[in-house]
């Protein structure tokens, strides 16, 4: 592979000039950036590269923040459940929270803004039945009911930015000052954010790209008493909540929010919760405010002749990149962390910006770059998983973050990334702007729809969770598959019906979550629209607990479509005779290994003899298909990400869509290999997604077969 240059951002740091110059050349980088904890000195900035400078709008300005502690950011938190053993119960409401991060707000009247709830009855405790001891941070409830549980929903000031706190602990920064986050909704803070940026732009003429990290409000990240993560939701709006925000919300929307609308029984409206109207309104309220204020800062950057880039992380709340207000901000670029294919597409598909950039792993921090560890292991896994998605829609740039001086000590890693950067540029030149071949159009159906495109089943970005990996595998598989993927909400169907060009709808998730839909499926208009569409020829794929909510003798409300339902214990006395799995089926035609349904679903049974049972074990169905009028339904108990399961999903989709005859087009029969074709340019590529040599039968667009052998990780371009 010939050496190329550009489209790569390199982290650097002061007093590392010679090595930085070498790395610029080896990795073909054309941009340099600082990171949290590093700065670029004048010598580094004089190198032939565009300079990115990390810019914190609402943190890192303690000289201002310490003079305006009344304008610190706030949060609404909920105490632990406290059992009343008598008619009086005393609650240490800060118990379990890290007191270097949060302080109780006594500036505003707790009797007006706090809420005490009897969780046994869900009733609000009258104001005259509780009091606050501000010295000992205790709430005492009188007239309590013995053996009822009570909680306090209370306001705090957030006095330590959680990302800086995490980095502080990870890197053992010792006595380094704690960054105090302030709220630009407040008058002095809002003015400071504008005025400081103006001055900063004048004082930093060598910065080409202002890398906002990000704007105003951090995703919800609260630490426990041991300084470890207590609650983290990458989508959480918890850090946006302040007394002033609630007052302005009431003025704009005509009704007041309760603390319970925010703390939500202690679930804090996690993205897995089916969103309430109040929470949707609050999200919209924050998004409009953030877009308006962010535009003011972006305009200042443009007036100074610089580019404005947003980091999709840290303080990104309110900048939903697929939301209705994002484009109005006027950003030039978005950069985000790439954990795999789905997070790559989350970034690369963002509309309304001039370019996108992916920050690849590993981050150059000592938790990975230490003696005895091989960072190439993570790098190879990260690259191969993201590369599949790059072949569908690449980001415009890639880069890394952290301490370059750490990574430089690992020559094998440096050699590997040199190959990665060259391969990325080759992919970009061949793929960008060229629509890839798509055999199907697939819609992911959940409560969030397009607002959270490529973000389903995430909690803390791309981290692994026991309860989610069996669903997240769907997105990871689709991120690099030859299908067109859209995200659709239940409201979309209610308001607009189902677009005619959709081949298959996927509904996947645990019962009651925003991703399965919960009580959304009790809407008569919704379910009859979906049933009609399937009956007239559409394909429906359900994973886990699709359409699950108990009513009318069904748990899966689309059990008639799927041909299966879940035993809840109410029909144990009803015989279930349908247990024989088919010997062969299109869906499993090339299956070579054992099935992996992840956490799976249990007690799934076939409804009738017409259900095509494809996998049956442990007295339950895990994979089944069913004819429904002119359409088809397919049920899968779970789908963790793997190459085998990617192939399984593709066969499921083609079968559900009645397009089996098109399956062997631009296709490789080895599950470790994939084909991407670009009809506009007349090019196609065959990928070896493994780090081992692979032999495969390759089928072109006409279905003509050819046997090929590919080197480890090879992309064969034709």
TrEMBL record:
Pfam families: Lact_bio_phlase (PF09508), LBP_C (PF17386), LBP_M (PF17385). Its EC number is 2.4.1.211. Residues 666-717 form the Lacto-N-biose phosphorylase C-terminal domain. SUPFAM superfamilies: Class I glutamine amidotransferase-like. Residues 6-438 form the Lacto-N-biose phosphorylase-like N-terminal TIM barrel domain. It comes from the Bacteria. It is an enzyme of class 2 (transferase). InterPro entries: Class_I_gatase-like, Glyco_hydro_b, Ig-like_fold, Lact_bio_phlase-like_N, Lacto-N-biose_phosphorylase, LBP_C, LBP_M. This is 1,3-beta-galactosyl-N-acetylhexosamine phosphorylase. The lineage of its organism: Bacteria, Bacillati, Bacillota, Clostridia, Lachnospirales.
């Amino acid at each position: 592979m010939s050496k190329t240059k550009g489209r790569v951002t390199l982290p650097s740091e002061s007093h590392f000039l010679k090595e930085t110059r070498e790395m610029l050349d080896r990795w073909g980088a054309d941009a340099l950036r600082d990171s949290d904890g590093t700065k670029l000195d004048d010598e580094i900035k004089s190198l032939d590269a565009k300079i990115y400078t990390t810019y914190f709008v609402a943190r890192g300005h303690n000289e201002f923040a310490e003079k305006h502690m009344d304008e610190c950011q706030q949060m609404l938190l909920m105490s632990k459940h406290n059992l009343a053993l008598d008619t009086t119960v005393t609650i240490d409401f800060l118990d379990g929270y890290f007191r270097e991060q949060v302080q109780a707000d006594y500036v505003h009247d707790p009797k007006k803004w706090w809420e005490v709830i009897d969780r046994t009855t869900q009733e609000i405790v009258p104001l005259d039945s509780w009091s606050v001891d501000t010295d000992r941070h205790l709430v005492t409830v009188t007239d309590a009911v013995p053996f009822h549980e009570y909680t306090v929903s209370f306001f705090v000031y957030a006095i330590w930015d959680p990302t800086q706190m995490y980095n502080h602990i990870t890197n053992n920064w010792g006595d380094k000052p704690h960054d105090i986050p302030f709220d630009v909704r407040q008058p002095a803070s809002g003015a400071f954010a504008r005025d400081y940026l103006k001055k900063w732009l004048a004082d930093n003429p060598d910065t080409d790209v202002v890398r906002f990290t990000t704007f105003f409000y951090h995703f919800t990240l609260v630490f426990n008493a041991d300084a470890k993560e207590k609650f983290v939701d990458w989508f959480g709006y918890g850090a946006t909540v302040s007394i002033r925000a609630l007052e302005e919300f009431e003025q704009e929307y005509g009704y007041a929010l309760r603390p319970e609308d925010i703390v939500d029984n202690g679930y804090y409206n996690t993205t897995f919760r089916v969103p309430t109207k109040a929470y949707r309104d609050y999200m919209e309220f924050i998004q409009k405010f953030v877009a308006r204020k962010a535009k003011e800062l972006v305009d200042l950057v443009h007036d100074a002749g610089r580019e404005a880039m947003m980091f999709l992380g840290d303080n990104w709340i309110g900048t939903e990149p697929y939301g209705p207000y994002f484009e109005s901000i006027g950003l030039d670029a978005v950069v985000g962390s790439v954990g795999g294919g789905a997070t790559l597409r989350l970034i690369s598909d963002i509309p309304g910006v001039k370019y996108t950039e992916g920050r690849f792993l590993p981050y150059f921090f000592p938790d990975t770059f230490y003696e005895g560890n091989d960072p190439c292991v993570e790098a190879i896994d990260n690259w191969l998983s993201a590369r599949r998605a790059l072949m569908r829609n690449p980001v415009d740039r890639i880069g890394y973050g952290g301490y370059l001086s750490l990574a430089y000590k690992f020559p094998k890693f440096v050699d590997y990334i040199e190959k990665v950067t060259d391969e990325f540029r080759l992919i970009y030149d061949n793929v960008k702007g060229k629509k890839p071949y798509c055999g199907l159009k697939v819609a992911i159906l959940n409560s969030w729809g397009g607002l959270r495109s490529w973000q389903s089943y995430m909690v803390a970005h791309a981290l692994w969770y026991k309860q989610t990996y069996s669903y997240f595998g769907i997105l990871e598989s689709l991120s690099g598959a030859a299908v067109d993927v859209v995200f659709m909400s239940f409201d979309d169907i209610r308001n607009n019906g189902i677009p005619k060009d959709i081949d298959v709808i996927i509904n996947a998730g645990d019962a009651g979550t925003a991703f399965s839909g919960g009580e959304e499926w009790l809407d008569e208009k919704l379910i009859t629209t979906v049933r009609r569409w399937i009956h007239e020829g559409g394909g429906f794929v359900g994973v886990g607990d699709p359409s699950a909510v108990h009513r009318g003798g069904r748990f899966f409300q689309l059990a008639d479509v799927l041909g299966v339902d879940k035993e809840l214990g109410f029909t144990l006395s009803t015989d279930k005779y349908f247990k024989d799995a088919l010997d062969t089926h299109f869906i499993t035609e090339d299956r070579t290994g054992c099935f992996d349904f992840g956490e799976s679903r249990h007690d799934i049974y076939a409804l009738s003899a017409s259900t095509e049972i494809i996998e049956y074990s442990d007295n339950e169905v895990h994979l089944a298909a069913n004819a429904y009028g002119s359409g088809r339904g397919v049920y899968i108990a779970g789908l963790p990400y793997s190459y085998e399961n990617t192939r399984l999903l593709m066969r499921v989709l083609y079968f559900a869509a009645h397009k089996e005859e098109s399956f062997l087009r631009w296709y490789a029969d080895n599950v470790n290999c994939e084909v991407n074709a670009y009809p506009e340019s007349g090019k196609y590529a065959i990928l070896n997604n493994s780090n081992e040599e692979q032999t495969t039968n390759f089928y072109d667009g006409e279905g003509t077969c050819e046997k090929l052998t590919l080197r480890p990780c090879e992309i064969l371009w034709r």
